[in-house]
Amino acid sequence: MTRTRLIGLDPGLRHTGWGIVDAEGNRLIWVADGSVASDPKATLAERLVQLHDGLQQVIAEWRPDVAAVEETFVNKNPTSTLKLGQARGVSLLVASLNGLPVTEYAPNAIKKAVVGTGHAHKDQIALMVKTLLPGAKQSNEHATDALAAAICHAHHGVR
């Protein structure tokens, strides 16, 4: 049985969560998780570079085979949505520059794959991530969301 290493990414300008999961058949194994932070006092361009460099280090260290990225949902604040989209673009770019096939999932699709309903709350997602990935550190909510994206990808059988 082959093992595939997945990276889930939860893009954000302040914090981009990442989670590494190994999939071996139907078995999921937590490997690592965390988040890359940007300096809120820096310019937008500098913050995007910080996210780029941080994600580049994560991918170089953990060497995933594929990537799953959470799609952007539309906020009430168009400026926030635009900034989130730019951070998301960095996530897509870094994964692609490293030769990873990238699949994007809507937040509701991730929730449904992990919890069973597309309108699950954060605490339900965290509990199911803990259940599906024993030993997962879940460093913060961004890492938990990234692990959920990786689980979603594994459940879709995309390798």
Helical content class: 40-55%
The biggest sheet, with number of strands, parallel, antiparallel or mixed sense and barrel status, is: 5 strands, mixed
Element order: H for helix, E for strand: EEEHEHEHHH
Mean pLDDT: 94
Provide the gyration radius in Å: 15 Å
How far is the N terminus from the C terminus? 13 Å
Shape: globular
Question: What class do helices, strands and sheet pairing give?
Answer: alpha/beta
Strand order of the largest sheet: 3-2-1-4-5
Which parts are unreliable, with pLDDT below 50 for 5 consecutive residues or more?
Answer: none
Determine the strand fraction and express it as a percent band.
15-25%
> In DSSP terms, counting alpha (H) and pi (I) runs of 4 or more, how many helices?
5
Q: What is the count of β-strands?
A: 5
Q: Characteristics of this structure?
A:
alpha/beta, 159 residues, 5-stranded mixed β-sheet, 5 helices, 5 strands
What does this structure look like?
The protein has helices at 44-62, 78-97, 107-115, 122-132, 141-155; strands at 3-10, 15-24, 27-37, 66-70, 102-105. The two termini are 13 Å apart. The chain has a 5-stranded mixed sheet with strand order 3-2-1-4-5. With 159 residues, the chain is an alpha/beta fold. It is built from 5 helices and 5 strands.
